[in-house]
Design the sequence.
């Protein structure tokens, strides 16, 4: 029987984080490292992945690795798995965090109406699904199957509050623009995040008898210097009256990938300041 402190301990456990060099990916990796785990940051940006891994290793005194991996390519994921096991040992934690997430403030770069469903480009749809869903499937297949063979492991899918509720498109409106030209949150974001919750339930039941747990976390929006008017509009939809801080999900990540959640699988943990209550 573990003490509470022991239940949260990740000492020596190898954790793969996809999209590991991104805003939240780095925070997930820091959370693992702070509890003694060894984070492996997979990202399409090799330089950023290596830099963030080096910073985490120096800060927390753990082994960390940054790898350039295209998670939409089966061979690349399999090659990464072989390299990680050779250098670090078996992977016991997988955090599927990678996603394409076009920033709404950049919508005009692709034309003022590109994000609207009527005009949404098929190539953008395919790219978003490929990274956010296919990538999670491939990583789960490769790393999860190895966990099942060993009889232990945890998969955590990073979904979103927009996998629970629809986007409130009023948040993105531009004053004075005609209705057909108003930017919106892209359809792929909702589809990917909802799909990740479905993937979580599938994995949780598929490998339940082989020691592999799978859960999802659905964070709310994180403040990262967004437009003041947008932040005010969004805060008005959240009972706590604010967006999340970048570090505010770290403890939940540790809970969900550690033995502290040992009797928990197939669950989507919503952490959104209360937004989905309204």
Sequence:
């Amino acid at each position: 029987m573990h003490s509470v402190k022991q239940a949260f301990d990740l000492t020596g456990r190898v954790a793969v984080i996809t999209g590991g060099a991104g805003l939240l990916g780095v925070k997930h990796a820091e959370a693992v490292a702070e509890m003694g785990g060894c984070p492996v940051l997979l990202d399409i940006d090799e330089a950023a992945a290596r830099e963030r891994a080096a910073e985490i290793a120096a800060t927390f005194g753990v082994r960390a690795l940054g790898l350039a991996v295209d998670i939409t390519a089966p061979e690349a994921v399999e090659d990464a798995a072989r390299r990680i096991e050779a250098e670090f040992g078996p992977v016991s934690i997988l955090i599927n965090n990678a996603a394409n997430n076009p920033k709404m403030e950049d919508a005009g770069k692709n034309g003022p109406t590109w994000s609207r469903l009527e005009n949404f480009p098929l190539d953008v749809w395919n790219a978003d699904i490929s990274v956010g869903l296919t990538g999670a499937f491939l990583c789960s297949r490769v790393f999860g199957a190895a966990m099942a063979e060993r009889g232990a492991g945890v998969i955590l899918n990073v979904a979103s509050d927009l996998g629970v509720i629809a986007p409130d498109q009023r948040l993105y409106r531009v004053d004075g623009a005609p209705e057909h030209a108003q930017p919106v949150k892209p359809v792929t974001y909702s589809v990917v995040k909802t799909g990740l919750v479905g993937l979580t339930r599938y994995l949780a039941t598929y490998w339940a008898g082989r020691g592999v747990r799978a859960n999802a976390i659905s964070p709310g929006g994180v403040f990262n210097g967004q437009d003041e008017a947008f932040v005010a509009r969004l805060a008005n939809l959240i009972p706590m009256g604010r967006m999340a801080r970048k570090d505010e999900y770290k403890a939940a990540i540790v809970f969900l990938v550690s033995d502290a959640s040992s009797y928990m699988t197939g669950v989507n943990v919503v952490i959104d300041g209360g937004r989905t209550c309204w």
